[in-house]
Amino acid sequence: MNNPKVFILILHYGEQEDTLECLDSLKKLDYPNFEVLAVDNDPNHRLGDLNFNYKVTKLVNAENRGFSGGNNTGIKYALNNGADYILLLNNDTVIEPEFLKKLVEAGEKDEKIGILGPMIYKCGTDEIHFAGGKISWLYNEAKHVPGANDFITGACFLIKRKVVEKIGLMPEDYFLYFEDAEWCLKARRAGFDCKVVSEARIGHKVSKNTQEYSFSYIYYQYRNGLLLAKRNAPLLIKILAYKISFLVYIKQVIKLVLMPSKKDWARAAMRGIGDFYKGKTGKFIA
Hints:
The protein is α/β, with parallel strands linked by helices. The chain folds into 2 domains: about 5-205, Alpha-Beta Complex (Spore Coat Polysaccharide Biosynthesis Protein SpsA, Chain A), CATH 3.90.550.60; about 215-275. It contains 8 helices and 11 strands. It has helices spanning about 15-25, 65-80, 100-110, 160-165, 180-190, 215-230, 235-260, 265-275; strands at about 5-10, 35-40, 55-60, 85-90, 95, 115-120, 130, 135, 140-145, 155-160, 195-205. Strands 1, 2, 3, 4, 5, 6, 7, 10 and 11 form a 9-stranded mixed β-sheet that branches. It has a two-stranded antiparallel sheet with strand order 8-9. α6 runs parallel beside α8 (about 265-275) and α7 runs antiparallel to α8 (about 265-275). The longest helix has 24 residues, at about 235-260. It is globular, with a radius of gyration of 19 Å. The N and C termini lie far apart (about 50 Å). The model has no long low-confidence stretch (mean pLDDT about 95).
């Protein structure tokens, strides 16, 4: 097999220690043709000097541009510098030496495969975090379902150059969450398949950067789930999803009044649903 050029994008946001550990783990890679881009997306916690035994190019965003906007900075650079493949890799992951080789081998064997991902385990365990993704349209969810190939999680996401050239950059309206799902849906509509490569494996610290069940997490889940449906679901499913969202909103109002322990969740969910219908996209502004 030839060794196509892979640009590995590490989007830095949050703990510098995690980013450095992720970068350090790349020293173990047994794939011979890669470059690493460290995209600094955190104006409050900038990366320092990066000295590793492989080439690292640091790109700096003036502000936090979210997951898709931050990664798009690196994707543009990679495309302009000869990338055959682009790998998005969360900064709170730790890789296994052969994972990239296994992903590229699978991609090279089948021209129809446009996006690939590894098996993702919770760090230090044999507990599977991701082994396939499925869209649940009625409930506006992008679920982790083993064996499903609706989408590949952005935590580790290998995409071919020709796919990006055909479908464009990551959609930035989401800011955080669901952009990976929409990118995969666009690729599938363009005739490409998504595939989880079971032989490839990485570890993920899971929800380190955005605390699960925080206000912003809940907000983006509700708002962006509806945005995904609006832009991608079949018409009948879209109508049903909208109707269900109104019922969900009423349920949150009841929680707010009768269940004080759930009030923070209810407020975040109501704000997310409300902002969707107001047409608000991008970064949440309190």
